[in-house]
Amino acid sequence: MLRTAHPPAPLPALPALLLAILSVQGGAAFAKVLFTQLGPVGATGLRIGLAAAVLSVIFRPALRRLTAAQWRALLPYGVVLGAMNLLYYLSLARIPLGLAVTLEFVGPLLLAAVTSRQRRDLLWVLLAALGVLLIAPWRGAGLDGLGMVLALLAGACWAGYIVLGGRVSQVVSSGVGVTTGMIVATLAVLPAVLISGAWTVVTPPLLGAGALLAVLSSAIPFTLELIALRTLPARTFSVLLSLEPVVAALFGWAVLHEVLRASQWAAVVLVMIASAGGAWTARQARAERPDPQTTSGPGV
Q1: Integer Cα distance of 140 and 137 in angstroms
Q2: How many structural domains compose the chain?
Q3: Sorting pLDDT into bands at 50, 70 and 90, what band is 150?
Q4: Is the pLDDT of residue 6 over 60?
Q5: Transmembrane stretches, by residue range (predicted)?
Q6: Domain hosting residue 226, numbered range
Q7: How far apart are CA 266 and CA 271, in angstroms?
Q8: What do you get for the CA distance between the two ends of the chain, in Å?
């Protein structure tokens, strides 16, 4: 059975994912401005809604031409995308950023462990898990129970986003997939935004800051992640995402002058080793894959 080949990705998978992580952390610098004035629900709605608008102008998806099979992949992807962002921002209202990012990563980490097929994959997962535990600010104030539960639920949505995003990347182009997903996500969080009343305090400066946040934290990273999901296995993608709390810690040190403890620097090293190991595993798996031209029988 012949399969329609996808056009080559504009970026290789690994650079695309690394750029996505950097873009998310850059957008985090602007999130606090919106967060303090709009609250977590309002900031989520503005970020997702403006991202959907920007992406719609860029990619102009022909929604009416999408097939039923494509919609079956896109609808759950968009709903999970909206829930993930809303739960994450709600958790940030109750617990510190570092703890929220760390707890959210439990979802992708468990996904990597469940889908792992080789011992070397489990090694990278364990190293990443150890690094995440070391970098988390487990001591001190801010350990709000509900906030931690919300972060864990956001992590569960993150794991679902990885799986569903992989399916979306196989049925539509990255631009159409992420744009349609953001439109669905906007509709999914719209009731919460309307109930919160945050839309009544939106001003032109807030719209400008929201547009920048939408581009850095949603439009760019989600598009790049779909590109990465075309070729990276879900378990490798999950391990590489362990760079999220590491990059957040380094941004805090370089930009906010936050001092890292020795255990947190050890976490940085462990997570970077795990991410590099995950990339190496993916490359080795592709190198060991048999050539289809030499293994396919006649008539295939």
Answers
A1: 7
A2: 1
A3: very high
A4: no
A5: 41-59, 71-89, 95-115, 122-140, 146-164, 176-199, 205-224, 236-256, 262-282
A6: 13-287
A7: 9
A8: 6
Backbone phi, then psi, for 217, in 5-degree steps?
A: -95, -15
**Residue 2 is assigned to a structural domain of this protein:** no
**Interhelix angle 97-104/243-254, nearest 10 degrees:** 160
**Cβ–Cβ < 8 Å for 269, 230:** no
Q: What is the pTM of this model?
A: 0.77
Residue 25's identity, in one-letter code, is: Q
Q: Would 8 be classed as within a structural domain?
A: no
In this structure, is residue 296 part of a structural domain? no
Are the C-beta atoms of 246 and 265 separated by less than 8 Å? no
**CA 225 to chain centroid:** 7
Q: Residue 105: phi, psi to the nearest 5?
A: -70, -15
C-alpha distances out from residue 297 to 37, 243, 300, Å: 63, 42, 6
Element (H, E) at 190: helix 174-196
Report yes or no on 174 lying in a domain.
Answer: yes
Q: Six-digit token pair at 22?
A: 């950097």
Distance CA 267, CA 131 (A): 4
